[in-house]
Amino acid sequence: MGEAHQLQLSIMVHHQDANGANSRSIRNTSVLPRGKSFNWWLRMTLYTCLVLSGQSVATLLGRLYFDKGGHSNWLQALMNLAGFPILLPYYCIPALGKRNNPTTNSVQSERPPSTLTLASVYVSLGLLVAFGCFLYSVGLSYLPVSTYSLICASQLAFNALFSFFLNSQKFTPYIFNALFLLTISSVLLVFQGDSDSGAAGVTTKGKYVIGFLCTIAASASYGLTLSLTQLAFRKVIRKETFTAVMDMIVYQSLIASCAIFIGLFASGEWKGLKKEMGEFKSGKVSYIMNLTWSAIVWQLFAIGGVGLIFEASSLFSNVVSALGLPVVPVLAVIFFHDKMDRIKIVAMVLAIWGFVSYLYQHYLDDRKAKTAEYENADGEVSTILPP
User: Fold this and answer.
1) Domain-embedded: residue 73
2) What is the mean pLDDT of the chain?
3) TM segments (predicted)?
4) 54: which residues sit within 8 A by CB, 6+ positions away?
Protein backbone atom coordinates (compact mmCIF):
# COMPACT_ATOMS: atom_id res chain seq x y z
CA MET A 1 0.00 0.00 0.00
CA GLY A 2 3.01 2.37 0.55
CA GLU A 3 3.91 2.15 -3.14
CA ALA A 4 0.30 2.86 -4.05
CA HIS A 5 0.24 6.03 -1.94
CA GLN A 6 3.56 7.14 -3.44
CA LEU A 7 2.12 6.60 -6.92
CA GLN A 8 -0.95 8.67 -6.08
CA LEU A 9 1.25 11.42 -4.60
CA SER A 10 3.49 11.56 -7.66
CA ILE A 11 0.46 11.76 -9.94
CA MET A 12 -1.04 14.64 -7.94
CA VAL A 13 2.26 16.55 -7.84
CA HIS A 14 2.71 16.22 -11.60
CA HIS A 15 -0.78 17.48 -12.34
CA GLN A 16 -0.54 20.26 -9.78
CA ASP A 17 2.40 21.68 -11.69
CA ALA A 18 0.62 21.23 -15.02
CA ASN A 19 -2.96 22.12 -14.13
CA GLY A 20 -4.28 23.18 -10.70
CA ALA A 21 -7.83 22.15 -11.48
CA ASN A 22 -6.79 18.62 -12.40
CA SER A 23 -4.78 18.27 -9.21
CA ARG A 24 -7.80 19.13 -7.10
CA SER A 25 -9.86 16.55 -8.97
CA ILE A 26 -7.27 13.84 -8.44
CA ARG A 27 -6.80 14.75 -4.79
CA ASN A 28 -10.47 14.26 -4.11
CA THR A 29 -10.69 10.90 -5.91
CA SER A 30 -9.21 7.63 -4.65
CA VAL A 31 -7.59 6.04 -7.71
CA LEU A 32 -6.51 2.76 -6.14
CA PRO A 33 -8.76 0.56 -4.01
CA ARG A 34 -8.07 0.59 -0.27
CA GLY A 35 -7.60 -2.62 1.72
CA LYS A 36 -9.69 -3.53 4.73
CA SER A 37 -8.44 -2.00 7.96
CA PHE A 38 -7.62 -3.87 11.15
CA ASN A 39 -10.68 -2.32 12.83
CA TRP A 40 -12.91 -3.69 10.07
CA TRP A 41 -11.62 -7.22 10.63
CA LEU A 42 -12.02 -6.74 14.38
CA ARG A 43 -15.65 -5.70 13.96
CA MET A 44 -16.32 -8.62 11.64
CA THR A 45 -14.85 -11.01 14.21
CA LEU A 46 -17.01 -9.49 16.97
CA TYR A 47 -20.21 -9.69 14.91
CA THR A 48 -19.43 -13.26 13.87
CA CYS A 49 -18.93 -14.28 17.52
CA LEU A 50 -22.26 -12.67 18.44
CA VAL A 51 -24.06 -14.60 15.71
CA LEU A 52 -22.49 -17.96 16.53
CA SER A 53 -22.76 -17.68 20.32
CA GLY A 54 -26.19 -16.03 20.31
CA GLN A 55 -27.71 -18.60 17.97
CA SER A 56 -26.24 -21.60 19.83
CA VAL A 57 -27.15 -20.41 23.34
CA ALA A 58 -30.65 -19.27 22.32
CA THR A 59 -31.41 -22.62 20.66
CA LEU A 60 -30.24 -24.55 23.74
CA LEU A 61 -32.29 -22.31 26.06
CA GLY A 62 -35.35 -22.91 23.89
CA ARG A 63 -34.86 -26.67 24.10
CA LEU A 64 -34.33 -26.38 27.88
CA TYR A 65 -37.64 -24.51 28.19
CA PHE A 66 -39.54 -27.43 26.64
CA ASP A 67 -37.54 -30.11 28.45
CA LYS A 68 -38.26 -28.58 31.87
CA GLY A 69 -42.01 -28.42 31.38
CA GLY A 70 -42.68 -25.44 29.10
CA HIS A 71 -45.51 -25.95 26.63
CA SER A 72 -46.30 -22.59 24.99
CA ASN A 73 -45.09 -22.32 21.41
CA TRP A 74 -46.42 -18.77 21.22
CA LEU A 75 -44.43 -17.67 24.29
CA GLN A 76 -41.25 -19.23 23.00
CA ALA A 77 -41.74 -17.52 19.64
CA LEU A 78 -42.28 -14.22 21.45
CA MET A 79 -38.92 -14.60 23.19
CA ASN A 80 -37.24 -14.60 19.78
CA LEU A 81 -38.34 -11.00 19.27
CA ALA A 82 -39.38 -9.41 22.56
CA GLY A 83 -35.83 -8.35 23.43
CA PHE A 84 -35.70 -5.63 20.77
CA PRO A 85 -36.11 -2.78 23.35
CA ILE A 86 -32.46 -3.31 24.33
CA LEU A 87 -31.62 -1.84 20.90
CA LEU A 88 -33.50 1.40 21.57
CA PRO A 89 -30.60 3.14 23.40
CA TYR A 90 -28.96 3.34 19.97
CA TYR A 91 -31.41 6.11 19.11
CA CYS A 92 -30.78 7.91 22.41
CA ILE A 93 -27.06 8.40 21.82
CA PRO A 94 -26.60 11.39 19.47
CA ALA A 95 -23.25 10.18 18.13
CA LEU A 96 -24.82 6.86 17.08
CA GLY A 97 -28.28 8.06 16.11
CA LYS A 98 -26.79 10.48 13.58
CA ARG A 99 -24.55 7.85 12.04
CA ASN A 100 -25.59 7.56 8.44
CA ASN A 101 -22.44 6.53 6.66
CA PRO A 102 -23.52 4.37 3.71
CA THR A 103 -22.29 0.84 3.28
CA THR A 104 -20.31 -0.30 0.30
CA ASN A 105 -23.42 -1.28 -1.66
CA SER A 106 -25.42 1.79 -0.72
CA VAL A 107 -27.50 3.50 -3.37
CA GLN A 108 -28.54 6.99 -2.32
CA SER A 109 -32.12 7.87 -3.11
CA GLU A 110 -32.95 11.35 -4.39
CA ARG A 111 -36.51 11.04 -3.15
CA PRO A 112 -37.08 9.09 0.08
CA PRO A 113 -39.96 6.59 0.16
CA SER A 114 -43.26 7.66 1.67
CA THR A 115 -44.26 6.75 5.21
CA LEU A 116 -47.03 4.52 3.88
CA THR A 117 -44.60 2.61 1.67
CA LEU A 118 -42.14 2.07 4.51
CA ALA A 119 -44.96 1.00 6.84
CA SER A 120 -46.14 -1.55 4.28
CA VAL A 121 -42.63 -2.98 4.02
CA TYR A 122 -42.17 -3.21 7.80
CA VAL A 123 -45.61 -4.74 8.38
CA SER A 124 -45.23 -7.33 5.62
CA LEU A 125 -41.77 -8.40 6.73
CA GLY A 126 -42.77 -8.30 10.39
CA LEU A 127 -45.70 -10.66 9.82
CA LEU A 128 -43.45 -12.99 7.83
CA VAL A 129 -40.92 -12.99 10.67
CA ALA A 130 -43.68 -13.77 13.19
CA PHE A 131 -44.86 -16.68 11.07
CA GLY A 132 -41.34 -18.07 10.83
CA CYS A 133 -40.63 -17.70 14.56
CA PHE A 134 -43.82 -19.59 15.47
CA LEU A 135 -42.95 -22.43 13.09
CA TYR A 136 -39.43 -22.58 14.51
CA SER A 137 -40.93 -22.83 18.00
CA VAL A 138 -43.20 -25.72 16.99
CA GLY A 139 -40.31 -27.52 15.37
CA LEU A 140 -38.10 -27.10 18.42
CA SER A 141 -40.84 -28.41 20.73
CA TYR A 142 -41.21 -31.67 18.74
CA LEU A 143 -37.61 -32.34 17.71
CA PRO A 144 -34.35 -32.95 19.54
CA VAL A 145 -32.17 -29.86 19.33
CA SER A 146 -29.50 -31.66 17.29
CA THR A 147 -32.02 -32.76 14.64
CA TYR A 148 -33.69 -29.35 14.68
CA SER A 149 -30.44 -27.47 14.07
CA LEU A 150 -29.40 -29.75 11.22
CA ILE A 151 -32.74 -29.27 9.46
CA CYS A 152 -32.29 -25.50 9.85
CA ALA A 153 -29.23 -25.80 7.61
CA SER A 154 -31.68 -25.93 4.70
CA GLN A 155 -32.18 -22.17 5.12
CA LEU A 156 -29.13 -21.63 2.91
CA ALA A 157 -30.74 -23.58 0.11
CA PHE A 158 -33.97 -21.61 0.40
CA ASN A 159 -32.05 -18.34 0.57
CA ALA A 160 -30.24 -19.21 -2.66
CA LEU A 161 -33.48 -20.23 -4.34
CA PHE A 162 -35.35 -17.04 -3.43
CA SER A 163 -32.30 -14.93 -4.24
CA PHE A 164 -32.32 -16.39 -7.76
CA PHE A 165 -35.86 -15.12 -8.41
CA LEU A 166 -35.89 -11.94 -6.30
CA ASN A 167 -32.27 -10.76 -6.22
CA SER A 168 -30.94 -12.10 -9.56
CA GLN A 169 -28.61 -14.53 -7.80
CA LYS A 170 -26.60 -16.57 -10.29
CA PHE A 171 -26.37 -20.32 -9.77
CA THR A 172 -22.98 -21.97 -10.12
CA PRO A 173 -21.87 -25.61 -9.78
CA TYR A 174 -20.80 -24.94 -6.19
CA ILE A 175 -24.19 -23.47 -5.28
CA PHE A 176 -25.98 -26.38 -6.95
CA ASN A 177 -23.78 -28.73 -4.96
CA ALA A 178 -24.65 -26.91 -1.73
CA LEU A 179 -28.37 -27.05 -2.51
CA PHE A 180 -28.22 -30.76 -3.22
CA LEU A 181 -26.21 -31.65 -0.12
CA LEU A 182 -28.32 -29.52 2.23
CA THR A 183 -31.51 -31.00 0.81
CA ILE A 184 -30.28 -34.58 1.22
CA SER A 185 -29.05 -33.73 4.73
CA SER A 186 -32.53 -32.59 5.78
CA VAL A 187 -34.40 -35.45 4.07
CA LEU A 188 -32.25 -38.08 5.81
CA LEU A 189 -33.37 -36.90 9.24
CA VAL A 190 -37.03 -37.73 8.66
CA PHE A 191 -36.21 -41.45 8.64
CA GLN A 192 -34.93 -41.66 12.20
CA GLY A 193 -37.71 -40.00 14.17
CA ASP A 194 -38.63 -43.12 16.17
CA SER A 195 -35.36 -43.05 18.10
CA ASP A 196 -35.48 -39.38 19.07
CA SER A 197 -36.84 -37.95 22.28
CA GLY A 198 -38.94 -34.85 22.45
CA ALA A 199 -40.04 -32.43 25.13
CA ALA A 200 -42.22 -34.90 26.91
CA GLY A 201 -40.53 -38.23 26.43
CA VAL A 202 -40.63 -40.23 23.24
CA THR A 203 -41.73 -38.28 20.21
CA THR A 204 -44.33 -40.06 18.10
CA LYS A 205 -43.82 -40.44 14.39
CA GLY A 206 -46.65 -38.01 13.72
CA LYS A 207 -45.20 -35.30 15.95
CA TYR A 208 -41.76 -35.85 14.46
CA VAL A 209 -43.11 -35.30 10.94
CA ILE A 210 -44.97 -32.17 12.10
CA GLY A 211 -41.80 -30.84 13.71
CA PHE A 212 -39.81 -31.66 10.60
CA LEU A 213 -42.28 -29.93 8.26
CA CYS A 214 -42.60 -26.87 10.51
CA THR A 215 -38.82 -26.47 10.73
CA ILE A 216 -38.47 -26.81 6.95
CA ALA A 217 -41.23 -24.23 6.43
CA ALA A 218 -39.60 -21.90 8.98
CA SER A 219 -36.25 -22.21 7.17
CA ALA A 220 -37.99 -21.34 3.91
CA SER A 221 -39.63 -18.36 5.61
CA TYR A 222 -36.26 -17.19 6.93
CA GLY A 223 -34.67 -17.45 3.50
CA LEU A 224 -37.57 -15.55 1.95
CA THR A 225 -37.34 -12.85 4.63
CA LEU A 226 -33.65 -12.26 3.87
CA SER A 227 -34.28 -12.02 0.13
CA LEU A 228 -37.25 -9.68 0.57
CA THR A 229 -35.26 -7.52 2.99
CA GLN A 230 -32.47 -7.20 0.44
CA LEU A 231 -35.06 -6.39 -2.23
CA ALA A 232 -36.63 -3.75 0.02
CA PHE A 233 -33.27 -2.06 0.57
CA ARG A 234 -32.56 -2.00 -3.15
CA LYS A 235 -35.98 -1.08 -4.52
CA VAL A 236 -37.76 0.83 -1.72
CA ILE A 237 -35.35 2.21 0.88
CA ARG A 238 -32.53 2.51 -1.64
CA LYS A 239 -29.87 3.16 0.95
CA GLU A 240 -27.98 0.93 3.35
CA THR A 241 -26.97 3.08 6.29
CA PHE A 242 -26.61 1.53 9.72
CA THR A 243 -29.59 3.56 10.94
CA ALA A 244 -31.73 2.20 8.10
CA VAL A 245 -30.75 -1.35 9.05
CA MET A 246 -31.51 -0.67 12.72
CA ASP A 247 -34.90 0.76 11.73
CA MET A 248 -35.59 -2.38 9.75
CA ILE A 249 -34.86 -4.80 12.60
CA VAL A 250 -36.60 -2.73 15.31
CA TYR A 251 -39.80 -2.15 13.34
CA GLN A 252 -39.84 -5.75 12.10
CA SER A 253 -39.48 -7.01 15.67
CA LEU A 254 -42.17 -4.63 16.91
CA ILE A 255 -44.71 -5.78 14.31
CA ALA A 256 -43.79 -9.45 14.75
CA SER A 257 -44.00 -9.19 18.56
CA CYS A 258 -47.46 -7.64 18.35
CA ALA A 259 -48.64 -10.39 15.97
CA ILE A 260 -47.32 -13.16 18.23
CA PHE A 261 -48.71 -11.43 21.32
CA ILE A 262 -52.15 -11.45 19.68
CA GLY A 263 -51.70 -15.12 18.82
CA LEU A 264 -50.75 -15.88 22.43
CA PHE A 265 -54.02 -14.42 23.69
CA ALA A 266 -56.18 -15.68 20.82
CA SER A 267 -54.98 -19.26 21.33
CA GLY A 268 -55.73 -19.12 25.05
CA GLU A 269 -52.20 -20.24 25.98
CA TRP A 270 -51.78 -17.18 28.21
CA LYS A 271 -54.23 -18.71 30.69
CA GLY A 272 -51.86 -21.56 31.51
CA LEU A 273 -48.65 -19.50 31.84
CA LYS A 274 -48.98 -19.01 35.60
CA LYS A 275 -49.50 -22.74 36.12
CA GLU A 276 -46.66 -23.50 33.74
CA MET A 277 -44.29 -21.29 35.72
CA GLY A 278 -45.30 -22.97 38.98
CA GLU A 279 -44.78 -26.46 37.56
CA PHE A 280 -41.49 -25.66 35.84
CA LYS A 281 -39.07 -28.38 36.97
CA SER A 282 -36.23 -25.97 37.75
CA GLY A 283 -38.39 -23.49 39.67
CA LYS A 284 -39.96 -20.10 39.04
CA VAL A 285 -36.68 -18.19 39.12
CA SER A 286 -35.18 -20.52 36.54
CA TYR A 287 -38.32 -20.12 34.39
CA ILE A 288 -38.04 -16.32 34.40
CA MET A 289 -34.28 -16.39 33.82
CA ASN A 290 -34.70 -18.81 30.91
CA LEU A 291 -37.17 -16.53 29.14
CA THR A 292 -35.20 -13.38 29.94
CA TRP A 293 -31.89 -14.68 28.69
CA SER A 294 -33.55 -16.21 25.63
CA ALA A 295 -34.82 -12.76 24.65
CA ILE A 296 -31.42 -11.16 25.32
CA VAL A 297 -29.26 -13.66 23.44
CA TRP A 298 -31.62 -13.64 20.46
CA GLN A 299 -31.08 -9.89 20.25
CA LEU A 300 -27.32 -10.40 20.51
CA PHE A 301 -27.72 -12.71 17.53
CA ALA A 302 -29.72 -9.98 15.77
CA ILE A 303 -27.07 -7.34 16.50
CA GLY A 304 -24.37 -9.63 15.10
CA GLY A 305 -26.46 -10.38 12.03
CA VAL A 306 -27.20 -6.69 11.43
CA GLY A 307 -23.53 -5.86 11.92
CA LEU A 308 -22.52 -8.38 9.28
CA ILE A 309 -25.13 -6.96 6.90
CA PHE A 310 -23.74 -3.47 7.51
CA GLU A 311 -20.09 -4.46 7.12
CA ALA A 312 -20.48 -7.12 4.39
CA SER A 313 -23.85 -8.32 3.06
CA SER A 314 -27.03 -10.15 4.05
CA LEU A 315 -25.76 -13.21 2.19
CA PHE A 316 -22.61 -13.31 4.30
CA SER A 317 -24.70 -12.90 7.44
CA ASN A 318 -26.74 -15.96 6.49
CA VAL A 319 -23.59 -17.96 5.71
CA VAL A 320 -22.18 -17.23 9.18
CA SER A 321 -25.51 -18.20 10.72
CA ALA A 322 -25.40 -21.51 8.84
CA LEU A 323 -21.85 -22.03 10.09
CA GLY A 324 -23.14 -22.15 13.66
CA LEU A 325 -25.75 -24.82 12.98
CA PRO A 326 -23.37 -27.83 13.18
CA VAL A 327 -22.15 -26.51 16.55
CA VAL A 328 -25.54 -26.98 18.21
CA PRO A 329 -25.78 -30.78 17.74
CA VAL A 330 -22.43 -31.21 19.47
CA LEU A 331 -23.56 -29.06 22.40
CA ALA A 332 -26.88 -30.95 22.48
CA VAL A 333 -25.08 -34.26 22.92
CA ILE A 334 -23.13 -32.77 25.86
CA PHE A 335 -25.94 -30.93 27.68
CA PHE A 336 -29.11 -32.79 26.64
CA HIS A 337 -27.66 -36.26 25.96
CA ASP A 338 -29.17 -36.36 22.47
CA LYS A 339 -28.36 -39.49 20.50
CA MET A 340 -25.84 -39.04 17.70
CA ASP A 341 -26.66 -42.02 15.50
CA ARG A 342 -25.22 -42.81 12.08
CA ILE A 343 -27.92 -41.08 10.06
CA LYS A 344 -27.52 -37.89 12.08
CA ILE A 345 -23.73 -37.99 11.68
CA VAL A 346 -24.07 -38.43 7.91
CA ALA A 347 -26.61 -35.58 7.82
CA MET A 348 -24.24 -33.31 9.77
CA VAL A 349 -21.31 -34.13 7.46
CA LEU A 350 -23.45 -33.39 4.40
CA ALA A 351 -24.64 -30.11 5.96
CA ILE A 352 -21.05 -29.03 6.68
CA TRP A 353 -20.00 -30.08 3.18
CA GLY A 354 -22.84 -28.06 1.67
CA PHE A 355 -21.89 -25.04 3.78
CA VAL A 356 -18.24 -25.26 2.73
CA SER A 357 -19.29 -25.47 -0.92
CA TYR A 358 -21.49 -22.40 -0.51
CA LEU A 359 -18.76 -20.51 1.35
CA TYR A 360 -16.19 -21.38 -1.33
CA GLN A 361 -18.47 -19.89 -4.00
CA HIS A 362 -18.69 -16.72 -1.89
CA TYR A 363 -14.88 -16.68 -1.73
CA LEU A 364 -14.60 -17.06 -5.52
CA ASP A 365 -17.09 -14.21 -6.08
CA ASP A 366 -15.18 -11.96 -3.68
CA ARG A 367 -11.88 -12.80 -5.32
CA LYS A 368 -13.29 -12.10 -8.78
CA ALA A 369 -14.72 -8.77 -7.62
CA LYS A 370 -11.38 -7.70 -6.13
CA THR A 371 -9.54 -8.68 -9.31
CA ALA A 372 -11.93 -6.62 -11.43
CA GLU A 373 -11.59 -3.71 -9.03
CA TYR A 374 -7.81 -3.69 -9.29
CA GLU A 375 -7.95 -4.02 -13.07
CA ASN A 376 -10.28 -1.03 -13.28
CA ALA A 377 -8.02 0.91 -10.95
CA ASP A 378 -4.99 0.12 -13.11
CA GLY A 379 -6.92 1.36 -16.14
CA GLU A 380 -7.75 4.63 -14.39
CA VAL A 381 -4.11 5.14 -13.40
CA SER A 382 -2.95 4.54 -16.99
CA THR A 383 -5.34 7.20 -18.28
CA ILE A 384 -4.19 9.72 -15.65
CA LEU A 385 -0.45 9.17 -16.20
CA PRO A 386 1.04 11.63 -18.72
CA PRO A 387 2.06 10.24 -22.14
Assistant:
1) yes
2) 78
3) 44-66, 78-96, 116-139, 145-167, 174-193, 208-228, 249-267, 287-310, 315-337, 343-360
4) 297, 298, 299, 300, 301, 302, 304
Strand partners, 202: 197
Q: Say if residue 227's pLDDT is above 90.
A: no
Three-state SS at 240: coil
- Residue 9 in any domain: the answer is no
Q: Is there a domain that residue 31 lies in?
A: no
pLDDT, tens only, 94-122: 655 555 555 444 444 457 888 999 999 99
Where in the sequence is the domain holding 159, given as residue range(s)?
37-384
- Say what the pTM is: 0.76
pLDDT band of residue 192 (cuts 50, 70, 90) is low
Domain annotation covers residue 242: yes
Say how far apart CA 258 and CA 260 lie, in whole Å: 6
Q: How far is CA 295 from the centre of its chain?
A: 16
State the total domains in the chain.
Answer: 1
Question: In whole angstroms, how far apart are CA 6 and each of 11, 17, 382?
Answer: 9, 17, 15
Helix and strand element counts for the chain (H, E): 17, 2
